[in-house]
Here is the input.
Amino acid sequence: TDVYDVLIFARNNIKEVNIPSFIKVISANAFEQNKTIKKVCFSKDSELVLIERCAFFFSSLESITIPRHVNKISSSCFSNCDNLKEIEFVENSELKTIKKSSFSSTSISHISIPKSVIEIGDFCFSFCLKLKTVDFIEDSELKILNRKLFYNSSIENFTIPSNIIEIKVSWCFY
Here is the structure.
């Protein structure tokens, strides 16, 4: 039998979605501009590894817990999700890359970046007007602070991880 492991498109009138464990990719624009969705749920045995660009762009998503095996969150994935207040990563997350503008213009106030993350793209938390605290797990593997990560945000508390080897010009605010 055929196994389909990519979620390509979702209806625009759903409030909550349970992603089947066999889904490995949420494709680009799958939930883009969905103005009814509030919550996305994944099973503990989720095989999801990739959330492609703009997957939830401009949706009304309020919270999400990123499954363990996700290793990349693509550009503008959750950008302009004005109602998004909570982003969590499961314990032992395998996330390596958070691309450009992934969480820009959301309503998060706090985020804890998994230890495994080695790259956070430009403008990732820009225009997060409620963002106060960014935490890095001890022994964070993050190596580079890219441009304008917190541009026009309200960040109050941020500790630079000890493994940082490069800080790009204007990494913080302007």
